[in-house]
Amino acid sequence: MAKMYYDADTNLNLLNGKTVAVMGFGSQGHAQAQNLKESGVKVVVGLRKPCDEFTEQEWNKVIEAGITPMTVAEAAQAGDIIHILLPDEIQARVYKEEIQPYLVKGNALGFSHGFNIHFGQIVPPDFVDVFMVAPKSPGHLVRRMYQKGAGVPGLIAVEQDYTGQAKELGLAYACGIGCTRAGVIETSFQEETETDLFGEQCVLCGGATELVKAGFETLVAAGYQPEIAYFECLHELKLIVDLMYEGGMSLMRYSISDTAEWGDYLQGPQIIGEEVRWAMQDALKDIQDGVFAKNWLLENQVGRPQFNALKRQNREHQIEKVGAELRAMMPWLKETK
Ligand SMILES: NC(=O)C1=CN([C@@H]2O[C@H](COP(=O)(O)OP(=O)(O)OC[C@H]3O[C@@H](n4cnc5c(N)ncnc54)[C@H](OP(=O)(O)O)[C@@H]3O)[C@@H](O)[C@H]2O)C=CC1
Ligand SMILES: CC(=O)[C@](C)(O)C(=O)O
Ligand SMILES: [Mg+2]
Ligand SMILES: [Mg+2]
């Protein structure tokens, strides 16, 4: 059994007298900064200097949350713990220009994903702690669960322990954002990076969306109504997954009909067969070999032509249009952006 850490294993007081500089106020940044603040931790947020309407709005969002916004360079100077929640693909540049020059002995650098450390894009000096607290959840749920008095699971890893307290500090951080309410597992930057990339590509995001699209397209091509195909293949997936989340596959199978359960056992392995497992192994190899990381960094260097084209194609898919119309009739499904 993996080593788990809960609230009782942490000492939030280790953050007393320290300032946490959360860099970025996006999906993870807005959640982690506000959770820390409500846990009684002194927090500042590092952002781009306001220069247009959009950046001013971001700056104001931080002020509305009762937190002081600063430029990244100012926050790097103010922070004892500098937690980098900028997009992975730009972290290295911002780090070199606006964070590294201000690091002092005994500071801690924090991450929520190991990409830049593991793939050598950020090489911190030897006089700082380097830890990771990686919530296993989208940022908006990191916030929502904390507000409910609950938390999302997370991972902790220490890459560099200058002060001798890096792990305890990381655990205090994990407590501050609510992760130790659900459980935190100790890992390495390598294990987190490779499993996180694998999970999002093959199961959680890439795998799930492609499975839904394939089901939807198969039904529509066979002449069934797109609205029925949407409810069947996308909307109801959440209801089924909620049961798996609460009680594993057994609870889900307890709730569905025996007819569904029989079809599940029989067809599941036909649909997700050997070929899918081979493709998963290929994807994992590209992640382990750094091929995926290299291609993603290069794609960014040339202005994301493929990313933008794929984003547009996927946004224009029929399932998105039908879904938008149906969701408009379900006002309780408020989109969180
Ligand atoms: N999204 C998630 O749920 C998860 C993310 N992670 C990790 O967390 C980290 C952050 O990801 P995520 O929250 O998705 O990122 P987002 O894209 O949601 O947010 C990034 C933030 O960084 C700001 N930013 C972008 N460029 C700069 C810059 N040059 N200078 C200053 N600020 C800048 C953005 O501001 P602006 O809006 O002005 O561009 C925004 O506030 C990544 O390491 C990711 O892998 C880990 C677990 C889950
Ligand atoms: C939400 C999460 O954990 C992901 C999918 O790994 C990510 O957003 O990078
Ligand atoms: Mg993840
Ligand atoms: Mg990820």
CATH third-tier fold name of the largest domain: Rossmann fold
- Could you say which overall geometry the principal axes of the C-alpha atoms support? globular
According to DSSP, the number of beta strands is: 9
State the separation between the terminal residues, measured CA to CA. Answer: 36 Å
Uncertain segments are: none
- Please give the oligomerization state of what you see: single chain
Portion in beta strands: 5-15%
The Rg value, from CA coordinates, equals 22 Å
CATH superfamily of the largest domain: NAD(P)-binding Rossmann-like Domain
Report the sheet with the most strands, covering strand number, pairing sense and barrel closure. Answer: 9 strands, mixed
> How many discrete domains?
2
Helix content: 55-70%
Number of helices: 16
Q: Give the rounded overall mean pLDDT.
A: 97
How are strands sequenced across the largest beta sheet? 1-9-8-7-6-5-2-3-4
Give me the strand/helix succession: EEHEHEHEHEHEHEHHEHHHHHHHH
CATH architecture of the largest domain: 3-Layer(aba) Sandwich
The CATH C-level class name of the largest domain: Alpha Beta
- SS-derived structural category: alpha/beta
Binding site for Mg(2+) 1: 196, 200
Domain KARI N-terminal Rossmann: 2-187
GO biological process, one term: L-valine biosynthetic process
GO molecular function: ketol-acid reductoisomerase activity; magnesium ion binding; NADP binding
